[in-house]
Amino acid sequence: CSSLTNVAITGGMTSIARYAFANCSNLRSIVLPSGLTNVGEAAFAGCSSLASIVLPDGLTNIGDAAFSGCSSLDSITLPAGLTNLGSEVFYNCIRLTHISIPNAVEMIGQSAFAYCWNLTTATIGNGLKSIPIGLFQSCSSLVEVTIGDAVTAINADAFAGCSGLTNLSIPKAVTTIGENAFARCTSLLTVSVPSGVVSIGR
Fold it and tell me: 171-202 pLDDT, tens per residue?
């Protein structure tokens, strides 16, 4: 599909199949149907010319690596009703600058935003209880993170390689911090660790 540049999906479609538009390297724009609830695994992976996409309000699930390698994508708004983000869903989206994870999101797979080099700010909503492995790994431009109050665990490598991060406030509910969670955070000056933390990895 290397010659495909624009797609408009209309009608009653509720799900986009896995790998549906994967590696359509010249795809620049796509219009999704309002009734869409699911974007399948790697559906738009490798669409390196895709600069923006509007996700419909009814979307509840985005599968593993759905937008991985969309290297021209500089912004994305996640709908308020979204409940699940797969692993590596925005992996290596190197132009993405900001992400806000809605309060309805209860599950995020590992490395969802890893290697988003230009990501500067991130907000994690109040629905997520565990920050997954490698969530923001090697997001070297990340300088501001707001973590929701429901988080009880920060898993391994969650912020590893976030070399621009200077300060981080960890919510009071957190009890465990995994191995290398803040490894190679070379600019980190202060971390507020709550008294309820009982385990910190090496």
Answer: 999 999 999 999 999 999 988 888 889 988 87
How far is residue 190's CA from residue 134's CA, in Å, rounded to a whole number?
A: 20
Determine contact, residues 165/138, Cβ cutoff 8 Å: no
**Residues paired with residue 108 on neighbouring β-strands, in sequence order:** 85
Measured CA to CA, the distance from residue 143 to residue 120 in angstroms comes to: 5
Residue 16 is encoded by which pair of tokens?
């986009």
pLDDT of residue 3: 84
The pLDDT tens digits for 47-96 are 999 998 889 999 999 999 999 999 999 999 999 999 999 999 999 999 99
28 CB-near residues (< 8 Å, 6+ apart): 5, 6, 49, 50, 51
Rounded Cα gap, residues 112 and 108, in angstroms: 7
Pairing assessment for the beta strands 121-124 and 144-146 based on DSSP bridges: parallel
